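One chain is below:
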Amino acid sequence: MAGEESRSLQLEVEKHILETKKFVLRLEEVSFLDSGGLGTLVRLVGTLRSAHGDLKLCQLSPFLLKVFETTKLAGAFHAYASEKEAIDAFSKRAHHPQGSPHPSKPKVLCVEDSADLLAYLSALLKRSGYDVFTTRNLGDATTFVKATKPALVICGPSTQANAPFFERFRLSHPNVELLLLPLDFPAAEAGLNLVHRIQALLNPSP
């Protein structure tokens, strides 16, 4: 989960990062995962792969299998049935295809203070075929809107906390479609519903 739980995992990885950049995470006993926790995993995978390492998952619980399936994020991780398979996979040549922006992809800007929630949204939307930009504050969001001309701006819970500042942002961009995430958004299972909402906004039925 977001908070102390995610922080504990990050600290454990950081504690051993000088010894190795290759980690296996056993998840058979995990019965809950929120979007912040999923974002933490996404960020750790990105950090380790950029340093020529990886975070491989194994023995996923039925709950996690369902979460990865419904959020379309299974492809963002390397998951294995057993710990041995995950460890053995490190001896094989790793291949991490890098996605590249394509002009035909709808552009989506995500604004949210939580780095974990941003990582989750970015991975989820890229897997769903969107060209994603992220920023952690509304001031930078205005610059991104002008530079990238997104089809949609997704505003996370923390972005909406400063009501006057948020209202000024909204009034400054009257022609930009906004999607506001609710305060109770963090459930990872909400990912699929979010994708459906975005599709409905960008492709309204006649």
Observations:
- Strands lie at 22-26, 54-58, 78-80, 107-111, 131-135, 152-155, 177-180.
- Residues 127 and 162 are 31 Å apart (CA to CA).
- The domain at 107-202 is CATH 3.40.50.2300 (Rossmann fold).
